[in-house]
Amino acid sequence: MKVLDDIKIGRKLISSFLAVVIIMIIVGIVGYSGVSTTNSYIGEMYEEQLLPTQQLLVIQSQLWQVRGNSAGYFAIPSTRNSTRIQTDAIIKSIEANLTSYESYITSDDERSVYNEAMKSWETYKVALDKFYPIVDSGDTETSITQMTTGDMVTARMALSASVDTLITMDINDAKNLEHESEETVTSIILMIVIAIIIGAVFAFSLGILISRSITGPLSQGVFMIQEMRAGHLGNRLKMTRKDEIGDLTKAMDEFSDDLQFVIIGGMKQIAAGDLSISVPPRDDRDEIAPAFNQLITAINGIVGEIRTLISEAEEGRLKKRGDSTLFTGAYQNIVIGINNMLDAITTPLNEALRVADQYSEAKFTTRFNEDIPVKGDLIALKDGLNTIGSELSTAITSISEQVSVLSASSEEAAASVEEITSGSASVAQSSAVVSANAEKSVNAVEQVLGAMEELNTSVSTVAAKVESVSRLTQEANGTSASGIKQAAVAESGITAINGAVNDVGMIISEIRDQMNEINKIVVIISDIADQTNLLALNAAIEAARAGDAGMGFAVVANEVKTLAQESQGSAENISKIITSLQNQSERAANAMVLATSEVSKGSVAITDTIQFFHHIAEQVEEISQNMTEVASLSEEEAAAVQEITSSVSEVKEMAAETAEEAVGSAAATEESASALNQVSGIINELSTIATRINESVSRLNG
Amino acid sequence: MGTIIVDPSSEIPETDLSRTSLSSRVRKGKNNDDMQFVEFMLGHEYFAVNLFHTREVITPTEITPLPNTPAYIRGVMDLRGSITTIIDLKILLNLTDEIEQKKRSRIIILDQEASEKPVGILVDDVYSVSTHHADDIDRNAEDEIHTIRNILGVIRKNVKDGHKLILWLDIQAIRASIEKDL
User: Fold this and answer.
1) CATH number at residue B95
2) Which of A351, A673, B14, B43 fits as disulfide partner to A424, beta carbons 3.0 to 4.6 Å?
3) pLDDT digits over B52-89, tens only?
4) Domain A244-364: assigned CATH number
5) Would you list the domain boundaries of chain A?
6) The domain made up of A2-222 is a member of CATH 1.20.120.30
7) Is residue B39 within a helix (H) or strand (E), and if so which, with residue range?
8) A403 with A690: CB under 8 angstroms?
């Protein structure tokens, strides 16, 4: 057991699991070998018994087929050839099967039966070979004999019997094999069961052993921790194991030591008043040692603070207070309580000091502050101080009142004098301003006068100009009237021209019509001449055909022809002349049309001109009227200017007088101002004196 | 243009007349030497036909075109009740360079036998009927050109500024050559 305890738990568990796995592998191997043995039995059975048996059965059936075929060969001559070929193929197949069977032979008995079968097969084959030629030769009786008795039957029967024997032997072999395999399987199952039982027992006992070695010490540890919780620190486990549980119990023992001796021991020392201890922390994350140290520091701090306050009070410095923010909770309450106690003593003392200070500065109205709580012996101090203040106050107040009355009176006098002084100063100032303004106005008025004179001359010039313009406009009026008359004459002339041109155009068109008439006549004449010419030609032909009898007629015809040609020429000439005449009259007509348009344009221009002249006349008239108005206005203006000038002159004189008077009044005012200033000085002195008295008194009064 | 046409027609008749009257008076016995012609124009050229092969001269009236005939057959017209075939001589003689139609075009109706169809030839202006002496007619070229050109001779005619040549057409031969188309 000791050895087991010294092994680490992880290794212990892994090795026990490994042991279980090995047991399982052994069981698996036993099972696998059993299964593979069974499989080999089944394979042997299939290859050595089942396959040859099937082959023998095939040979049996093929033998039956051969037998049937020989009967068919004999009975049906028509299919002999195909039957023969089929039979040969079957024979070959039987022979192949028999030969291949030889490899399956296992025992001597089987060998002798097989040899017998082979012998009868050879005999049967020979019999068959003989049978076919007999049938072919047509010997029916011999054939039947061969089929019913003879080798064909006996050999076949022998072969069939041998094959049956072989089949029976194979089946027996298979039965033996099956029996053997059954036995093997039974023994394998037994082995597997035994292996499973042994493995299970081993694994279970291993599990119990290991769990016991872990849970026993653990429950001891749990018990110890429960004890520690109850404050019983004297227990120790003191195990000598070397696994993880041994480490755990050792650490627990050490912790118990720390608690019992360091912490509890320290606490006992503090309770006895020894504050000099300190516990060094084990590492950065140690919480117990710092907390313990903090406790000691806090107690040290509060003790130190109280000691300081006491020593300060002993020295008479009562203003010192403990800093309560450095502490928390109950410690803070202690400091605050001490502070409050100090306050209860020092506050009334301080107030008494303040009141005494105020009295020393002659402020006798000061009283002991009632808001400050005063208790016990300190009340007498408070009342004494208050009485001093009230008595002195009443005495001073009566003095002060008297002085105030005096001061007020002198202030009033000073104010009155100041008012008078400022009044006379403002009068002096005003009169100076008046004087300056009067001078400025005199200058301005002089400028106005100059401007008025310029205006006067300008107005006269305007009047003269206006008159000349008026004269000119009257002349322009006359000129435009004569222009209108002449334009009217030109208009009537153009109208006359227009009429004449229209007449000429009409005449020309008449001429053209007549020419056309003449032309028609000329065409007619030309046609007649042409006809005459033709007639003359025909007459000449007729005359020639008449021979000598027509000689005279031919001459006449020729004359007629000549005349016709002449008149033709004349008509053509007339036509030409008329054509040129027509052209010329056409041109004349065009020229006329042109002239007409030009004349009408001229007529329009003249009408416009007349209108323009009318406009000019009207505008000139308007100008003339405006000018007349301007002339009368400028005359009025001249008169007004005259009046303004005289008024301005008067203003000028008045302003000059004002200036002189203002100078006089300024001098008088200045004199009175100086006198007032003297009075004011006296009053001010008086006032100053009164004020000083008042200040002294009020200082006394506080 | 107009003057050229007018001049010969206005000048020549006098000479013709004087000559005709002269010849008729002076050479009365030699009538056989004088020949009478109807003279006409085709374009700018002068032509003549024997007066005795003509019947009359007319102004062209309405001509009815005939279908399916050669180009030189203008058509037919009604001449006082007899249907007359009109032949355009300019097209027939291949004188087509002068296309413009003259205002004074005429139709010369040919003299015909009773069995023949009446035929007229369309010409540009018949300007005279005149008589020429045989001496004025040059018939030398006759033998060579007779059959081909249908010209019997060339007539010299005196005019104011020298003389001009007039081609004497064998109108009967021309007519015979186109007989089958009439």
Assistant:
1) 2.40.50.180
2) A673
3) 899 999 988 889 999 989 989 999 999 888 899 999 98
4) 1.20.120
5) 2-222, 244-364, 384-701
6) yes
7) strand B34-42
8) yes
Q: Which two tokens stand for residue A452?
A: 């008025």
Closest Cα of chain B to A541: distance in Å?
7
Q: Do A544 and B9 touch (CB under 8 A)?
A: no
Q: CA separation (Å) from A190 to A73, A179, A183, A197, B3? A: 65, 17, 11, 11, 167
Contacts 24+ apart (CB under 8 A), A621-628: A621/A473, A621/A477, A623/A469, A623/A473, A624/A470, A624/A473, A624/A474, A624/A477, A627/A466, A627/A469, A627/A470, A627/A473, A628/A466, A628/A470
Using a CB-CB cut-off of 8 Å, the residues of chain B touching A562 are 13-14, 17
* Cα–Cα dist B51/B39, whole Å: 9
Nearest to B126 among A537, A542, A545 (CB): A537
ipTM confidence: 0.75
Q: How many CB atoms lie within 10 A of CB A551?
A: 14
**Among B127, B103, B110, which Cα is nearest to B47's?**
B127
Measure the CA–CA gap between B87 and B73, rounded to whole angstroms. 5
Q: Which residues of chain A have a CB within 8 Å of the CB of B59? A: 530, 534
Nearest to A541 among B10, B38, B106 (CB): B38
Helix (H) or strand (E) holding B167: strand B162-169
pLDDT along chain A (702 residues), means of 10: 76 86 87 86 85 87 85 83 86 86 82 87 84 81 79 82 87 87 87 88 87 84 86 80 82 84 82 80 81 84 84 81 80 84 80 81 77 78 78 71 68 73 74 78 80 80 78 79 80 82 84 88 89 89 85 87 89 89 85 82 82 82 81 80 82 80 76 75 75 73 58
pLDDT tens digits for B103-160? 678 999 998 877 788 999 999 888 888 888 888 888 765 555 556 667 888 888 887 7
- A551 interfaces chain B, CB cutoff of 8 Å: yes
Among residues B147, B156, B174, B155, which one has the least CA distance to residue B93?
B174
Phi, psi of A315 (to 5 degrees): -80, -5
By C-alpha distance, which of A629, A326, A330 is closest to A467?
Answer: A629
Dist CA B151 CA B49 (whole Å): 10
Q: Are A495 and A603 in contact (CB under 8 A)?
A: yes
How far is A324 from A337, CA to CA, in rounded Å? 10
User: Is the separation of the CB atoms in A34 and A173 below 8 Å?
Assistant: no
CA distance A257 to A423: 109
- Cβ neighbours of A428 (radius 10 Å): 19
- How far is Cα A618 from Cα A476, in angstroms, rounded to an integer? 11
3-state DSSP call for residue A702? coil
Split into its structural domains, chain B has a count of 1
A2-222 and A244-364: identical CATH topology: yes
Give the helix/strand (H/E) hosting A224. helix A150-229
- Report phi then psi at A255, rounded to 5: -60, -40
Q: Where are the alpha helices (DSSP H) in A361-377?
A: none
Report how far residue A306's alpha carbon sits from residue A146's, in angstroms, rounded to the nearest whole number. Answer: 152
Q: List the single residue in B13, B24, B129 with the smallest CB-CB distance to A562.
A: B13
Cα gap A256→A250, rounded to integer Å? 10
Query: Phi/psi at A321 (nearest 5 deg)?
Result: -130, 150
**When comparing pLDDT for B18 and A518, which is higher?**
A518
Q: Which residues of A touch B54 (CB under 8 A)?
A: 541
8 Å CB contact of A541 and B6: no
Distance CA A269, CA A279 (A): 12
